[in-house]
# Entry
Amino acid sequence: MGIYPLEVDNLTVAYQKKPVLSSVSFRIPSGKLIGVLGPNGAGKSTMLKAVLGLIPTVGGSVKIFGQSYKESRKKVGYVPQRESVDWDFPTNALDVVMMGRYGHLGWFRRPGAKERRIAMECLAKVGMADFAGRQISQLSGGQQQRVFLARALAQNATLYFMDEPFAGVDATTEKAIISLLHELREQGKTVLVVHHDLSTVKEYFDEVVLLNGKLVAAGSTEETFTTANLQKTYGGRIAMLQDVTNASDRSDEAEVSGESSPRRSKTARRAGKAGKSSMTNAADGVDIPDEAEGADVPLGAVSRT
Amino acid sequence: MMSSLLGWFADPNMQWILMGSLLLGIGSGVIGSFTYLRKQSLMGDALAHAALPGICIAFMLMGVKSIGLFMLGSIISGMIATFGIHAITRYSRIKQDAALGIILSVFFGIGVVLMTKIQHSGNGNQSGLDKYMFGQAASMMKSDVYMMGVVSLLLIIVCFILFKEFKLVSFDPGFARGMGMKVGLLEQLLLFMTVVAVVVGIQAVGVVLVAALLITPAVSARYWTDSLGVMVVLAGFIGAFSGVTGTLISGTLSNLPTGPVTVLAATSLFLVSAIFAPNRGLVAKVWRRARTRQQIQQSQSLEMAQQRSRTVEGGLD
# Structure
């Protein structure tokens, strides 16, 4: 396999002369979950935005499936940070998810019954089908995050970029998101996640990209997520680096304590259930019809064949 | 007053003017919805004030009063103002609100100076230019009204065609750009349409208050609905009502400028919305809070009663 989902070569980004990322090069293999890690201001989100062409770059190149981003845009799904939008916007959950289809619709064409159906299926996948008609400001933070995920699913991409999807969500939502990520991986999709919680890295990700203004290391979690590399990434700032890298069991413990927590709200419980059921239904996949472009692989196609 | 009102409706010239105000109101309401949701309401105000020097310079250069010419002048000075605001926020530590304030007042100051100069120049043609300050719908020529109506109609049509695009750009521009939408172009187009809406409304409503026709209908409409489509249509209706009411009242009552009356009409609808709208309105909020409190009190007293009966039963044992 010569073509990588993402190849970043010498990428340099600067905000008003101050370089935020300098000469970052790495490539990621297909069908993996990749965590992008680094301290605040390390340029994680900046890298994501530069790759997506949201901010100008000073130098370097980005190839997605061997092509420029412009040419392969429809293969890419994006989950921005939740705080990046005003949730008081007059719209409902279903409508936001349908926005994921706009790229396929092109100029002028309006979303119709087909888009509505796809959006409903994507909402169901993240356990949010019951909230389709809910005004988005009436959703909890975790639910808003899942709406954003559903919107990315509706994009029906093969490479996903997620900017801190786990920020400020409860244990239930975190589980729902992770089961969704696993499902995507099973379908052969590649997901790049900007992540902060070092204690869950070993459990969640196959590969990691360590950033600190420049690339510290990139590769399989096993080989790359080491104390030495983390020290290079975070400096002396993290006292318990040793703990994090050695004890992958620790996160299991945390999981158990989260599960047995007796005080869970009704909606959270319902959402948790829905999240699980979506996991068991993974084999069915969402049936998204082929678009005019041959490049589009229907969600779930891999799991069906 | 009644008879003069009837006389107004019978006058074909006035029918034109009313039609123009109606379309202007709809157009401003529709564009204003997007401006408001993109948190650029004040931008409309800055653009309106910035239009004044453009109008004056256009008049000084050509010596004629022509709405097309004025539109060109105010669009150019509006664009310069936008550029200035961008430059200030980009190259200094000054934030956008202050930059808006600086540009708005400087341009308006220049405009007033120029206008005074024109009025003292003894140019016979200058009469009526001062109407641009607060607007005088009744003073409009048929060609002006025609222009205003056609431009407003164009704005409405563009918003209808590009509704999906404007919606996503207003809600989540980052996502839109990642998806390959021409976000920069769409944002420029929205800004340009805001300028056009402001400029086209100036003669009817005046530079000082024309921004209210962008902001107030949109804010009022937001109270009634959680759907962007409904909000845009509603804002159009509220804008139309305000425009027509303003024109009617200012036309029938002697010498009242149109702008302030239009703004008052829009504001009265805003007050109704803010107080009586379901869910978001003040009354609904107070009522909801009272009901919740009552429910909690009821369940608490019920619990207390149950507890008491339990202890009584326990006592009998």
Summary: Chain B is about 85% helix and 0% strand.
